[in-house]
Amino acid sequence: MEYDNILSDILGRKDFLVVGKNVIRTDALDKALGKAKYTADYVPKGTTILKVYRSTVAHAKIRSIDTSEALKVPGVEAIYTGADITGNNQIGYALPDQPFLNDKKVHFVGDPIALICAKDEYAATEAMDKMYVD
């Protein structure tokens, strides 16, 4: 094959372990069956899970954010809103003109409103269900 010759010329080798050869993929069956483990599947012990509570409506004023019920969920460590950010709450790619966490107004569906920190994903998800934004 031509690419074998090109690699041989560049690298100065004639034999390669993988290039130009049929390789048996020992992980193929696990991947095909959805059983393969990836780095995202391994969560080190003691890792804090973070979920972003986002707006479900566009162009709306935020009158209040109630986190009291969400904070009662076992495993929830903290919930941060725009009121918790001291200093500049503005971000943006070219121009910092968007709030990092919206606490006065949301502009589009998916605007971030709060960060939920929990000991596991189940607690974070349950806390998201107990958040109340008016």
From TrEMBL:
InterPro entries: Ald_Oxase/Xan_DH_a/b (IPR000674), Ald_Oxase/Xan_DH_a/b_sf (IPR036856), Ald_Oxase/xanthine_DH-like (IPR016208)
Segments forming domain Aldehyde oxidase/xanthine dehydrogenase a/b hammerhead: 33-131
SUPFAM superfamilies, A to Z: CO dehydrogenase molybdoprotein N-domain-like
Molecular function GO terms recorded: iron ion binding; oxidoreductase activity
Signal peptide stretch: none
SMART domains: Ald_Xan_dh_C
The entry's keywords: Molybdenum, Oxidoreductase
PANTHER family associated with the record: ALDEHYDE OXIDASE 1-RELATED, XANTHINE DEHYDROGENASE
Protein name, entry field: Aldehyde oxidase/xanthine dehydrogenase a/b hammerhead domain-containing protein
Species, as recorded: marine sediment metagenome
